[in-house]
Amino acid sequence: MINKVLEYIANETNGKCYQSFRYCADDEIRMPTLDYEDKDKGKEFTLVKNSCGETDTSLKTTKNVGETANKIINNAPLFHFFLDGSRRTYKVDDIELNGHVYPIIAGQIGVACCERQSADQFKCANFESKLVLSLPKATNPNAGDAKLFFNNLKDKVNKLPTLTKREITFDKILSYDSKKQDDGTKFEHLGIATIQDEMIESEKRIVASLSEKQLINANKYLIKDGSLQYKPMKTSDFKELSKFKNHYKSVVGISKMFNPELCRDKDGKSNADKIAELKLFHRTPAYKYQTEIVGSDVFFAIWYVRIREKQHSASPFAGILKIEKILITEDEMENGLDSQEVDFITANIINERNPVCYGKDERWANHLYPVYLTETFIKSKYLSDINFLNIF
Predict the structure, then answer these.
(1) N or C: which end of the chain has fewer CB atoms below 10 A?
(2) Cβ(194)–Cβ(134) under 8 Å?
(3) How far is CA 280 from CA 42, 66, 283, 323, 363, in A?
(4) What's the rounded Cα separation, in Å, for the pair 46 and 267?
(5) How far is Cα 191 from Cα 29, in angstroms, rounded to an integer?
(6) pLDDT tens, position by position, 175-204
């Protein structure tokens, strides 16, 4: 009886595994497309030139929001929920199928939303944890219903004694394109991308759940760590655009790491130097961007703010956050976000900057502490790399 996970997969798919060296792909693979949270290099997200992302069209340079932040510092904070998604990916073997060799990628996914109950008390409002595998589509020997095949394979794998005795189960077996890519993308990267997409779908589900329960609203916003610029996904559970957008009425995306090459003013010219020179508590004008999600245009207001003194940070862009808000109403899509709302959101973000995680995270200058707590909580739930790799 075959007891090992990889041997069983090879047997079920008419393949051959090579017992290749196993390692954490996040440590070994430095993917340029994953270095930044706004990682799509502008291919799908484009600036709407000669248009503003906010109603105050007279704002040409930067604006000091520090005074507004001071005025509201003793008020109830705008942000009550903090969402973050994380994944660890691993190359666990190579499999030969019909004369071609493909990597088998495994992953741990964690998505958590923490709720602020008081000034110094947070609790976990929602948490999803998954173990997944990503195989090439060629592992489906009959080229039949892929979803059914991989679901059945997952169920069979989960019944293996090596997993049942450890009380470990895989939530999904994902699949990546097994055809050679025209742009030279490696199969390993395709496998990692499927795990990234699964993490994003978990984030969307949690936002939808909070929105439907009316836990996030005009007085209780949610900060999502990272960009809101989701790429089009054929397999997404959120294909109805209006429903997707309405869930994000009270959601703001915060990117700690953004690509300076994508920083543009309303005329489409590079704005990176001006953003690097932002003074403390100053924000840029909000710019309007658009992207196509599941077949329709979605518009964003995007702006930048400095939350740390430049002399205390390690680089010109350390201490600067990229802020995103989806434009929901027809008026917002036409005229941009109300500038008073932009100021209010920014002021509340400034007031979230302390305490800091200095010494605990090299990105400390760009971290908001509640987001750091959420990220730390997720990572505390992971199996260690050694324990995870020993599953196989």
Answers:
(1) N
(2) yes
(3) 28, 8, 9, 16, 17
(4) 12
(5) 13
(6) 999 988 888 889 999 999 999 999 999 999
